[in-house]
Design goal:
The chain is 16% helix and 33% strand. The chain is an alpha+beta fold and 170 residues long.
Amino acid sequence: AAEPAGDPIGDALARPPAASAAPSPDEDPPAPASQAAPEAAPPPTAGDEAAYEARIRASVAAAQGLQGPMDGRWTLVGADGKPLYVFQFVDPPGGYGTLQGAWQNPRRTRGADDLGVVDRVERSGPGLTLIFVSRTGAAATTVRLQGGAAGGFAGQIDEDGQVQTVSLRR
């Protein structure tokens, strides 16, 4: 099963701000109180923080609304539900430009052949074809998919001459 998407904005907002570093020995000491800047504004209230968080979330939602329907993270799973590849797509606004992607193979340990760029992405109506070389010296892996009513895709992967049924979902 696909892992639920995280909430990077929520996670960042939940972390307290980093403490400022102490001045280094070669820095000038702070100005005396008579030359110091005016007092800082009082700390934000819970209402201020909630309004700030709402503005951040609205900005992120607006930016995501400018992307095409394939933009983001997708997982290709086999018939057994186990992840075969994780893709990150960049889809221009409206979904009409060139779709670009990168892949990661979660079945491999981290190394030279566990991730790469999708060499060719072909979109035709509800269909999607991905072609990439998943291992140095290997033949190209081809994934042929058709869009489904629920927003996912189903089809087949041909990897190292082995063909199996797959689905692509968020």
